[in-house]
Specification:
heterodimer; A: 245 residues; Ribosomal Protein S5, domain 2; 4 helices; 9 strands; 29% strand; B: 293 residues; alpha+beta; OB fold (Dihydrolipoamide Acetyltransferase, E2P); 5-stranded mixed β-barrel; 4-stranded mixed β-sheet; 5 helices; Exosome complex component RRP4 (chain B); NA-bd_OB-fold (chain B); RNA-binding (chain B); S1_RRP4 (chain B); rRNA processing (chain B)
């Protein structure tokens, strides 16, 4: 690691966080009037926007329809201005397609799709600023947007990335830490039932360390859950008061 | 022409004086509502390990032994007898598909519309071929829900002179939960326009017709130009509806009328400014509270 000290001797990271500390999370539900559900989230400098349409009639070819549950259709995109170097294609490249697939798998596990046979749920997420943990920010934003749309889910889906540097698990990696190239693990968790919706790891990690890293990641997911839960409850409280029947 | 440009402003948190904090049971997905097994599972809930859990964020409603969670905002869940406004999306064999903001497109059967020539007319093959002459893609209709299928799709009918194709007017889309269920959803407002408050959140504002042309069965539209004063009333009503819906107020004849009256001191275009919206909605709320009193 060429000169860059990712974890200081005192246990602080580059941006001054402790190893198990998250970045500041700010979120808002119901940012668009046109969509069925929408949400915006900031995790440190990573900013994501999620929009949900549906459940609605299948668009495009009818053959996609499933007779016993809803189709979950996702699209992940990164704004052209989201990265340091300007991107040419906002979506459709390999990385985005893979991310789209992951999001689809995650939310098929969480949404109660069997309640909506022969319909379709669209989830569109866009990264407005990329500073590490893009997948996680997208999952968290999409969770809020789905809740805003009133689509039934088993539980929240909270995601957090974890790295492993100098024998210490670091949670919620920022771009610099991601780029350093250590092992990285992305976990999407249903926090109440502690079920794993998605677990992805790139590069190798010794078996002995896996449990430690996984524990740190699930702890971080529950921390994310606490923040999101606060946002949802405040939103519900506010709207209920306004409706005030 | 002067153009006003504004920066986006942060929304204010739900305000203040008129709104008492109500003590309702609010839940989020995954929350345990009860561990007692003596309850029935309603919408917005699911069972896991003998526990009743919420699956949407909203308020818990109990009716005897039935527990439901009502989400704040959802797609339209149809019930028999509801009035809806919808848009034709497709013409199929003996049926039209209608977009009603429901989770599946609704169907309007050829046998459940009144064709020109009276109620007792037989439907022939020619009618089937001429379906697109009656209603084509993109047309708006008002209808009543006749039945709900097992997958949640709705079957509509227009077998009354109240319903049928909509002519000239303005459509406003709001969340279905904002439309209050009343005995009547057709109103001739005293301000000079009529309104159809569809239970599905589609609201149709149109100039009050002078007399009903009964014979056509609602398929011939009046294409006379609408007079300027009428158009102004309609635009004002539209902006009032937008103001009420952004501030999450229930929509029904009284609230709309009060809002309309509160908006009169302002120009129509100013009603879209956030501070003016807030002011007129506040005034409307005040009047409604006083009236309930």
């Amino acid at each position: 690691m060429a000169g860059l000290e990712l974890l200081s001797d005192q246990g602080y990271r580059l941006d001054g966080r402790k190893a198990v500390e998250l970045r500041k999370i700010q979120a808002r539900m119901g940012v668009f009037a046109q969509a069925d559900g929408s949400a915006y989230i900031e995790q440190g400098n990573t900013k994501a926007l999620a929009v949900v349409y549906g459940p609605h009639e299948i668009r495009g070819s009818r053959s996609k329809a499933l007779h016993d549950r809803a189709v979950v259709n996702c699209q992940y995109s990164m704004a052209t201005f989201s990265t340091g170097e300007r991107k040419r294609r906002p979506h459709g490249d390999r990385k985005s397609s893979e991310m789209t697939l992951h999001l689809k798998q995650t939310f098929e596990a969480a949404i109660l799709t069997q309640l909506y046979p022969r319909s379709q749920i669209d989830i569109y997420v866009q990264i407005l600023q990329a500073d590490g943990g893009n997948y996680c920010a997208c999952v968290n934003a999409a969770t809020l947007a789905i809740m805003d749309a009133g689509i039934p889910m088993r539980d929240y889906v909270c995601a957090c990335s974890t790295g492993f540097i100098e024998d210490t698990p670091l949670v919620d990696l920022c771009y610099v830490e991601e780029a350093a190239g250590g092992p990285q693990l992305a976990l999407a968790l249903l926090p109440k039932s502690e079920q794993i919706a998605l677990l992805e790891m790139n590069s190798r990690l010794h078996e002995d360390h896996l449990e430690k890293v996984l524990d740190a990641a699930s702890k971080a997911c529950r921390d994310v859950y606490a923040v999101l839960d606060r946002v949802v409850r405040d939103h519900v409280q506010e709207v209920c008061t306004l409706l005030g029947e | 022409m002067a153009v006003e440009v504004r920066l986006p402003a942060a929304r204010k948190r739900g305000s203040e004086v008129l709104l008492p904090e109500t003590n309702r049971h609010l839940v989020a997905p995954g929350d345990t509502i009860t561990t007692d097994t003596g309850f029935m599972r309603g919408h917005g809930t699911y069972m896991e390990d003998e526990k009743l859990l919420a699956s949407v964020a909203g308020t818990v409603e109990r009716v005897n032994k039935l527990i439901c969670v009502r989400a704040l905002k959802t797609r339209y869940n149809g019930e028999v007898g509801d009035i809806v406004v919808g848009r034709i999306t497709e013409v199929q064999q003996r049926r039209w598909k209608v977009e009603t903001n429901s989770r599946l497109d609704s169907v309007l059967l050829l046998s459940s519309v009144n064709l020109p020539g009276g109620e007792l007319r037989r439907r022939s093959v020619e009618d089937e071929l001429a379906m697109r002459d009656y209603l084509q893609e993109g047309d708006l209709i008002s209808a009543e829900v006749q039945a709900v299928f097992s997958d949640g799709a709705l079957s509509l009918h227009t077998r009354s002179l109240k319903y049928g194709k909509l002519g000239q007017g303005v459509l406003v889309q709001v969340s279905p939960s904002l439309v209050k269920r009343r005995k009547t959803h057709f109103h001739n407002l005293p301000c000079g326009a009529s309104i159809i408050l569809g239970n599905n959140g589609f609201i149709w504002i149109f100039p009050t017709p002078e007399q009903r042309e009964e014979e056509a069965g609602g398929f011939i539209m009046n294409l006379e130009p609408v007079s300027l004063p009428d158009r102004e009333v309609i635009s004002r009503l539209r902006n009032c509806l937008l103001a009420l819906s952004t501030h999450k107020m229930m929509l029904y004849d009284t609230s709309i009328l009060y809002c309309y009256e509160a908006s009169l001191p302002h120009q129509i275009k100013d009603l879209l400014k956030s501070e003016v919206m807030e002011e007129i909605v506040m005034e409307t709320r005040q009047r409604l509270v006083e009236q309930e009193g």
